[in-house]
Design brief:
By secondary structure, the protein is α+β, with helices and mostly antiparallel strands. It has one domain: Cytochrome p450 (Orthogonal Bundle), CATH 1.10.630.10. The strands form three sheets. Strands 1-2-7-4 form a four-stranded mixed sheet, sandwiched between helices. Strands 3-9-8 form a three-stranded antiparallel sheet. A hairpin with a 2-residue loop joins strand 1 and strand 2. Helix 5 runs antiparallel to helix 6 and helix 5 packs parallel to helix 16. The termini are far apart. Bound molecules: protoporphyrin IX containing FE. Protoporphyrin IX containing FE binds next to helix 11, helix 12 and helix 16. GO terms for molecular function: heme binding; iron ion binding; monooxygenase activity; oxidoreductase activity, acting on paired donors, with incorporation or reduction of molecular oxygen. Belongs to the cytochrome P450 family. Its cofactor is heme.
């Protein structure tokens, strides 16, 4: 039954039971929030009570007992981690992250160009691109071998995050899994491999820092996210040399790197693939976008960052994609205390699932909610995704909203713009646009069930 609790199934239940309903799974109370008004009550009116995160046994173990930001409960530790990340790691001022995006997109475009005239699996290629971006931003440029090893570790983490574990719903069954359960062995192994991998990287960075201090020819080296985090590093997690701030340990660094990897990879890749699929299904919109690109950029060069603000229709396409296909369709929060929403009692520790997918298709909030219509965002007063229009919350809203929004949008806009500007696209085997399968699958994100395959041809002069 748990496996059938997807964003689509919960939306169907909401049609019957309303914008707020309760489910009991084993001992776990769950509450589904499916309308803009209910989302506002949870994410704005009572944001302070709903800013905790639920975590399964596997997630707690793999995040070193919530030593990260994404799964830490709301409180001083989370605030401290979030401040470090927002000011140091995700900030627009951190030019290196933006440079990683630009340079990786450049080499991605060359790879596409090398395959002109043949069918390419866009889904697979963009996932490779976003992994390269986050990997490069996090660790700088380290060996190809190291990259492969890290990707394997991530894949196993991803599987384990989604694994069903009865103990999450019936904690009194805990003794079963502790009796040599297979899941526990896999969790142990996965975290062990990450320890070996990142400990080595941290040691290399400590060495780099020492050498830099001694000025041994390390000046001018690219700073990566680990470098930024090392500034706060304290083996014991005590007071740092920055005064009263709490230092961060190796476990915190490992868990934060995982947040960036999981938060910034599949989300951006799924949005790029959906945008391309919707455009290939709607040639009219693709033509409008290509015309805009030709007018603003010209057909003799690629799209640059400085063009993005002038590309109004591109922004509409991106918004419409995020409305119909929010990469994280269910926002998971937890009630910190017993409370009441719209007259209904919500018990302490209830898992609150805010269905951003259903909200983006709410028929009272949107005209023709299931139709891809980017031009709706050209109208005056159209909602924005910054978090105060509750009918459109692909990045969440309030305290736990996405800290990587700017970086994610940059990668998303620049990739879609360049894919549509540099190439024309056809579907393989004479497939018609209306034959494209637009189903999704539910996991950490909601990517396409059938990967998008298309054939590029050169468009630029
Ligand atoms: C199109 C791209 C992206 C989308 C749609 C997206 C969406 C989201 C959403 C919906 C949440 C949860 C909000 C909530 O619970 O209310 C979230 C949280 C988060 N995102 Fe993103 N995200 C994107 C890109 C990124 C990127 C590029 C990064 C990092 C480089 C990132 C890092 C995070 C982190 C660390 C959190 C947890 C924040 C916390 O719990 O305090 N995201 N994101």
């Amino acid at each position: 039954m748990m496996k059938s609790l997807t964003h689509r199934r919960l939306a169907e239940l909401a049609d019957v039971y309303g914008g707020l309903f309760h489910l009991k799974m084993g001992q776990l109370h769950m509450v589904a929030v499916s309308t803009p008004e209910m989302a506002r009550q949870v994410l704005q009116t009572q944001d302070n009570l709903f800013s905790n995160r639920p975590a399964t046994v596997a997630i707690s173990y793999l995040t070193y007992d919530r030593a990260d930001m994404a799964f830490a409960h709301y409180g001083p530790f989370w605030r401290h981690m979030r401040k470090i990340c927002v000011t140091k790691v995700f900030s627009r001022k951190r030019a290196e992250s933006w440079a990683s995006v630009r340079e990786e997109i450049d080499s991605f475009m060359k790879n596409v160009d090398a395959r002109i005239g043949s069918s390419i699996n866009i889904g697979e290629m963009v996932l490779g691109l976003t992994r390269d971006i986050t990997y490069r931003a996090a660790f700088g440029s380290i060996s190809e071998e190291g990259r492969e090893e890290f990707l394997k570790i991530m894949q196993e983490f991803s599987k384990l995050f989604g694994e069903f574990n009865v103990v999450d719903f019936m904690p009194w069954l805990g003794w079963i899994s502790y009796q040599g359960g297979n899941l526990h062995k896999r969790l142990d192994r996965a975290r062990g491999s990450l320890d070996v991998f990142i400990d080595k990287i941290i040691d290399d960075h400590l060495e780099k820092k020492r050498n830099k201090k001694n000025n041994e020819g390390f000046d001018g080296l690219e700073e990566d996210m680990v470098d930024e985090l090392m500034e706060f590093y304290d083996e014991n997690g005590g007071t740092s040399n920055l005064g009263s701030a709490v230092g961060i340990t190796r476990d915190n660094i490992k868990a934060l790197i995982m947040d960036v990897m999981f938060g910034g990879t599949e989300t951006v890749a799924s949005a790029i693939e959906w945008a391309m699929a919707e455009l290939m299904k709607s040639w009219d919109d693709l033509n409008k976008l290509q015309q805009e690109l030709a007018d603003v950029v010209g057909l003799d060069r690629k799209v640059h960052e400085s063009d993005l603000d002038k590309l109004t229709y591109l922004k509409c396409v991106v918004k419409e994609t995020l409305r119909l296909h929010p990469p994280i369709p269910l926002l998971l929060h937890e009630a910190a205390t017993d409370t009441v929403v719209d007259g209904f009692k919500i018990p302490k520790r209830a898992r609150v699932m805010i269905n951003s997918w259903a909200i983006g298709r709410d028929k009272n909030a949107w005209d023709e909610p299931n139709v891809f219509k980017p031009s709706r965002f050209l109208e005056g007063g159209a909602p924005d995704f910054k978090g105060s229009n509750f009918e459109f919350i692909p990045f969440g809203s309030g305290r736990r909203s996405c800290p990587g929004m700017q970086l994610g949008l940059y990668a998303l806009e620049l990739t879609v713009a360049n894919l549509c500007h540099c190439f024309n696209w056809t579907l393989p085997d004479g497939m018609k646009p209306y034959e494209l399968d637009m189903n999704d699958v539910f996991g950490l994100t909601a990517p396409r069930a059938v990967p998008l395959v298309a054939i590029p041809s050169r468009r630029l002069t």
